[in-house]
Amino acid sequence: MDLGPWEIAIIAVVILVLFGSAKLPQAARSLGRSMRIFKSETKGLINDDEDKQTAPNDARAEAARLREQAARLEAQAGPQELNAPQSGGDSTTVNGVPLHQTEQGKHS
User: Fold this and answer.
1) Which of 56, 59, 80, 89 is paired with 105 by a 20 to 30 Å CA distance?
2) 78 vs 19, which has greater pLDDT?
3) Does residue 7 form part of some domain?
4) DSSP label at 87?
């Protein structure tokens, strides 16, 4: 659909009649602001897509770093016995947790 000079002139006259000469500059500024906002939002969408493509690599690197840190902490702590009885005369443990005398009757 090609617009000739007469069609453009008719559209301009209709716009001038609808908005009036006083509101036309304000409408043009509003249109310009809307176009800037639209452009910035579309750029934001493109940047979000790029971030999503790089995010799995970042997550894998973070997971590897956390695994290495956990291994270092385990090595520093040394071997530990699970479910080891606690020192103390009357303590009984369930899953490594010491029970008080009032709780011993419930689990025995």
Assistant:
1) 80
2) 19
3) yes
4) S
Q: What CATH number did the domain enclosing 26 receive?
A: 1.20.5.3310
- How many whole angstroms separate alpha carbon 34 and alpha carbon 36? 5
| pLDDT tens-digit map of 22-67 | 887 888 889 899 999 998 888 877 777 666 666 666 778 888 889 9
Number of domains the chain is built from: 1
Tokens at residue 79, please? 């071997």
Q: Which domain holds residue 20?
A: 1-47
Q: Which residue's entry shows tokens 């385990």?
A: 74
The separation between CA 101 and the C-alpha centre of its own chain, rounded to angstroms, equals 49
DSSP string computed for 7-43:
HHHHHHHHHHHHHHHHHHHHHHHHHHHHHHHHHHHHH
Domain-embedded: residue 95 = no
Task: Check if the beta carbon of residue 101 is closer than 8 Å to that of residue 107.
Answer: no
Residue 30 identity (one-letter amino acid) = S
